[in-house]
Amino acid sequence: MRLFGKTIKPDFADKGMSKNDIGSDKLYYLESVRGVAAFTVLLSHIAASYYPAVTFGPSVAINSSIMFKLFYGLPFGFLTTGSFAVVLFFTLSGFVLTNKYIKTKQMKDLLNQVAKRYIRLAIPIFCVVMVAYFMISNGLMKNTLNAYYITDSPTLMQIFSIVPNFAGALYNALFGVLINKNASFDPVMWTMPIELVGSFIVFGMAALVNNFNKRWFLYAGIIIFLGSSYYVCFVLGMLLADLVNNTNFVVYVRKNVSKVYIIILSIAVLIIASFPYPLAGLKGMIFEHMLIPGLDSIYIYSIWQFLGAFILLAIVLVSPKVQKFLNAKILVFMGGISFAFYLTHYLVLHSLGDSIFVRLYPKIGLHYSVLITSIATLLVTLCVSIIWKKYIDDFSVRVSRRFSGYILK
């Protein structure tokens, strides 16, 4: 797939897919889902930084009542709710990492994924930590605190408060992120340890449940056991892969489920994706009625998010019209660079972005400053992501493949 003169190819082997087992079109639209989610995460961090009430609720000083009304919950909260995008990332990972093995039932396909996984994540993580160390050490994040004085955002107060040293950065790059869950150099990497452990959970489950007739009870038991843990998302993704490959789920839904119900479910997903957090500001909103009295509100919130991501991915898998939309070149392009985009956007936002915002705010006010900052951050992140994918992501894919081949040989 070519766009802007660049060839962006989804990583078939890395995602547990191939052209032969699920088809190139399907691969592209699944990648597009990842790209849309990555873009939503960027929007959520822009909102958290410059319109904090949109993210943190009415307890934070509302520096823009218009933005609060539009993006805190309905009607457009799904555009700035990064937590739902992350849940969707995890669910999609559960699907794509197990899909090929569930389809082929060849143990070599599963072992290949197991052997590659750590290396595939570790190399980009190492690079982003060292880049962050260089940026922090050279004062490129110095305007973050100045932006905090303007917006009073809790996000801006907390990030990049570390005193960097090379030895600490090197340790964090090699071990701290994936083993100690330390995301101080790039806060978005809090998801990486979950991604690693969740991957191995579904790898282990795949080896156990394939060809097991009563595996549906096992799925249910593990989901109940995991509760509100993010690892539920990986299991739900694997469950979808099982339904798609080993049952007539897709055919049945296409033949028997009315398009009206699909539309209703899609609207329900948008409502769930708009569910704001924290939950203290829900009074008078539709989301107040989605909590269950007597049960932990955080638990119920998580369950709604997991369910929403599951339904959304199911709709994508069964709806040809949704797939056609997601096959648009721009979305496929975003999917191809989504991992690079996710890892690097936060550093761009709080170096270049904060610098632009601080300089423009006294001259043109809040809204225009945020608009120009957002456009600049998006464009630069896209450029960085294209380069990052070519020289770091693709390199990590090649190394992980060679490592897997060596180990399995």
Question: Can you characterise this structure?
Answer:
α6 packs across α18. This protein has 409 residues and is mostly helical. The protein has helices at 19-22, 24-50, 52-56, 65-71, 82-104, 107-137, 143-151, 154-158, 166-176, 191-209, 215-226, 231-246, 249-256, 259-273, 297-318, 320-326, 329-336, 338-408; strands at residues 2-3, 6-7. It has one domain. Helix content is 73%, strand content 1%. It is globular, with a radius of gyration of 21 Å. It has a two-stranded antiparallel sheet. It is built from 18 helices and 2 strands. The relative contact order is 0.17.
Overview features:
single chain, 409 residues, two-stranded antiparallel ribbon, globular
Through-space gap between termini: 33 Å
Q: Strand-and-helix sequence, N→C?
A: EEHHHHHHHHHHHHHHHHHH
Helical residues, percent: over 70%
Describe the largest sheet: 2 strands, antiparallel
Q: How many domains, as an integer? A: 1
Q: Which radius of gyration do the C-alpha atoms yield? A: 21 Å
Strand order of the largest sheet: 1-2
The total of beta strands comes to 2
Mean pLDDT: 90
Structural class: mainly alpha
Shape, please?
globular
Percent strand: under 5%
How many alpha or pi helices?
18
Task: Itemize the secondary structure elements and their pairings.
Layout: E1 2-3, E2 6-7, H1 19-22, H2 24-50, H3 52-56, H4 65-71, H5 82-104, H6 107-137, H7 143-151, H8 154-158, H9 166-176, H10 191-209, H11 215-226, H12 231-246, H13 249-256, H14 259-273, H15 297-318, H16 320-326, H17 329-336, H18 338-408
Antiparallel strand pairs: 1-2
